[in-house]
Amino acid sequence: MHAKSRFAPLRNLAFAFKRWFKRLARKITLNAKEDIMPRIIVERNFDPPISQEDLNACFQRIGGCLDLYGVRYIRSRISTDRRRSFCEFEAADAQSVRDVQSAARAPYERVWPAEVIGES
Is pLDDT larger for residue 44 or for residue 117? Predict the structure, then answer.
């Protein structure tokens, strides 16, 4: 029996394992990308400027609706003149965040998907 023919089954097994491993790695990578939910930005304008009490009441109403629509609150920024704000959420889509805003009776100007840049 030649050395080549004696090791042929092992080479075939190694090749099959290599193919299987590449497919598994590709599946894991795809699943990891799918698990990341998009970030959604909500823009708000207030005229007159919003008071802290009204802002707290709005956030409390929003907080009560997040789980109903599968949305997670990330953070908010409000301008120093209290006339504009940006809120960041994590959700499957922008419509889920719009639904939260409507259910919470929270006024908004625009809702749009965003890409995170520079966050570690």
Answer: 44
